[in-house]
Please model this.
Amino acid sequence: MSESMCAQASGSKGSGGLIVEKRMLAENIYLMKVYAPRIAKAALPGQFVIVRASEHGERIPLTISDYNAVRGVVTLVTQVVGVSSRLICRKAEGERLTDIAGPLGRPSEFVYKTPAELTSGRWLFVGGGLGAAPVYPQVKWLHAHGATIDVIVGAKSASLLIFQEEMRAVCRTLYIATDDGSAGQKGLVTDVIRRLVEEDRQSYETVVAIGPMIMMKFVAQLAQQYQIPSVVSMNTLMVDGTGMCGACRVTVGGKTQFTCVNGPEFDGALVDFDEAMRRQTMYREIEINGK
Amino acid sequence: MANKIPRIEAREQDPQMRRANFKEVCLGYTDEEAMLEATRCLQCRNPKCVPACPVNIRIPEFIAKTAQGRFVEAAGIIARDSCLPAVCGRVCPQETQCEGCCILGIKGKPVNIGKLERFVADYNRDHGTVFLTKEPANGRRVAIVGSGPAGLSCAHDLAKNGYEVTIFEALHKAGGVLEYGIPEFRLPKGTVVKYEIDNLKQLGVHIETNVIIGRTLTVDALLDEEAFDAVFIASGAGLPKFMNILGENLNGVVSANEFLTRNNLMRAYEVTSDTPIYIGQRVAVVGGGNVAMDAARSALRLGAEVTVVYRRTEKELPARIEEVHHAKEEGVIFRMLCNPVAVLGDERGWVRGLRCVCMELGDPDESGRRSPVVIPDSEFEMATDMVIMSLGTSPNPLIASTTKGLAIDRRQCVVVDEHGATSRKGVFAGGDIVTGAATVILAMGAGRNAAAAIHRFLTKPAMPSSSID
Model:
């Protein structure tokens, strides 16, 4: 973050929104560091923000990939998938997001655990695609609290892998899986989990999976098969993100939960993923065909 | 003589026209109409309308000025008690408040107080002045959580009393339910709501959007770190309620909150908005309150055939009479004594219908309302491709769960004494977060009440702040 930008940013009250750094991580995937001192100070692993990139823009939930309370910045990673994410990704360093609000959602459960609980067993994190970004602050936090963590990052191909270096610095072993075999093991993240548990005889106390819902569904199923508790982070539709609209409702253990206030993290064994995936598509036709 | 003049109803957009646009339904009075209607007021020496108003507007006084054509002075009288006259003139349930107590209403029709208030407020906005007189700054700082009606009215009274007031709003736009909930055709945002909020800013009130109290900052942090002397929690209604029936999470089933927020706050009905909105061809709205009417009439304007499904009779509909009347004029179908028992889906997981039962009214329950009872073997299916659930809300747990020592009741509402003081010293609350979902004007009344209590608390700090444990 340049000095002039810092000065410019600190001149504004409230949450700011100035993009102090922007980098392309992979094709169509961008990292942005955004000046938002209150959010940076309050953020904990597992939380997200709501962002708007224009006056007519949608409210888009984005998971927080890193935060620095001293510098007052939060790191967001966005992939161009539709109109609104394209608008966000088009913003240049030195420009402002129209709005940024957060941190939203409940922090990961582990932040409330005792040091003994954190270090009693090994953690396995699984990040699929863009999911590697929100996995990172969790692994970083646990690492800082003495936990031992293995991480699996999956992507379509080597060129789409993100956060490898950062992750290596905070985990015991980083495993890579790519669909085309261009890096790491060819196959799915679940193939790596099988290998670790069945062949390498690794034992894990908890599996945390963040990524596409279909990936989280299969990781949660596999974890259940191995009798390992799993945690997933639901990326549902949202409008306000503060507990008002109910668009984000998911069925967990037969009960309706609101992702924005009860989540976003839930027990993977209890989430109705098929319903969640179906609900995610509710506005897809409108988004593709326009209004 | 005065009461020989028939009540003047305000002109409205033709129902056939307005059902296809989002422009305001009511067109309001002309100067002459307002003056004539104002002459109907009997100027009671002991007016019943004033105590019936939750913010005690000096109604006969402002009406007397209106009758004389002194509209700006009339606005000045209202401004002493209300910071949102153009809003209240449009959305208050006058029939159960001021107009419901008007003496003229005993034998004939009450004075059209609502439309007079609307007229005076609109006239003043277009021609008049902003009433900015306030006490000199007293150096005390008050934080207000939420910029809806309760927060705005509390901010108004405190700012006038010389306090430095900051409102923290979770969304990107100030106004609370006035922005996200009430549709444009009942309450224009760009003119009415924006003007009233701009007035508050001119009065010196700071509004910080995108700050979620309970997440971005806590109530404790406001008191301890941000050095506020008192906090008023007016965070409003919360999570939408659902029926807990089969199929409620099918695609095409939304809460009224979601539907209205997309349409109002995010302006999804405009082509320029990036926010998508789904609208069915045949929409069922479940519920009978003002929010249900707003959802039904919005869906109608987006091109749907709309049916309101309610388990009691029309007499028990909690919505304002005017809203029901307008909805009917516009072509909303009312299916009373009908209750959904399941939402039916197609093979793709989209709603295709409602399974309902017919009801009849049984004996009165403890609230005095006759409770609906299912008629045996009355089940039937109603074809619909969208269901909007409008069943009220339950409080948002965010603030209660992050504020130390804040007492809540079994409905998760914040507990306050008659002055709005919570169990935490220096922390006050009011509006829907205390009462559960209610009206704009009741929230405003709570905001005023709390402003007075905060003033007493900060000027006489020795007084016990609360009787709540």
Summary: The two ends of chain A are 40 Å apart (CA to CA). DSSP finds eleven helices and 15 strands in chain A. The longest helix of chain A spans residues 132-144.
